Amino acid sequence: MKNGRLLSSGKARNISNLAQEILEKRKRKSILLMAHQIVGYPDFETNYEMIRLFHECGVDLVELQLPFSEPIADGPLFLKANQKALERGTTIEQCLDFAQKVTRDFPLFCIFMTYYNILLQYGVKRFVETAGSIGIRGLIVPDAFPEESDEYFAACKQEHVDPILVVTPYTPDTRMEYLAGKTEGLLYCAARKGVTGSPTSFGDATTDFLLRCRQYSSTPIAVGFGIQRPDDVRYLVNKSDIAIVGSTLLNILEAEGTTGVREFLLSLRPE
Question: Fewer CB within 10 Å, N or C, the chain?
Answer without folding.
Answer: C
